[in-house]
Write a structure and sequence with these properties.
Layout (H helix, E strand, L loop, with lengths): L2 H11 L5 H34 L4 H20 L5 H25 L3 H14 L3
Helix pairs in contact: 2-3, 2-4, 2-5, 3-4, 4-5
Length: 126
């Protein structure tokens, strides 16, 4: 049995979901994605980032949309405390900045790209 299957079975055995831990895991996934974008920017810059980033921006954005949907649902549930809400808002800001980087690249807007990368770098946790 593979690790994912074991983890899924173990998860089914739990009766209570640890929402604060789930929020932290989602927040960490968002910041890992932000760091991927920042690292790709450092390596490739505006001219080559979209062509060379791996996984590609579309895949990163699709994954972030799923995470954002989960974060929105948890945030609206009122089952979490202030610290978790703050993490969710912080992660959503990062998602927005990554989307801004992608849009700037798509529209060949170097100035907005630079601004979004700077904001992403200032907020990211390495």
């Amino acid at each position: 049995m593979q690790g994912r299957e074991v983890a899924a079975i173990e998860a089914e055995d739990k009766t209570a979901l640890d929402l604060p831990q789930a929020v932290e895991i989602a927040w960490n996934a968002v910041f890992q994605t932000a760091n991927t974008v920042i690292t790709a920017h450092s390596s490739f810059g505006f001219a080559q980032l979209e062509a060379k980033i791996n996984p590609n921006l579309n895949h990163l954005l699709m994954g972030l949309k799923v995470v954002e949907s989960v974060l929105d649902t948890v945030y609206a549930s009122e089952l979490i405390e202030y610290d978790e809400k703050r993490l969710i808002l912080n992660a959503k800001q990062q998602i927005g900045l990554i989307q801004r980087v992608a849009e700037a690249l798509k529209n060949d807007n170097n100035a907005d790209y630079d601004s979004a990368i700077q904001a992403l770098t200032n907020q990211a946790q390495f």
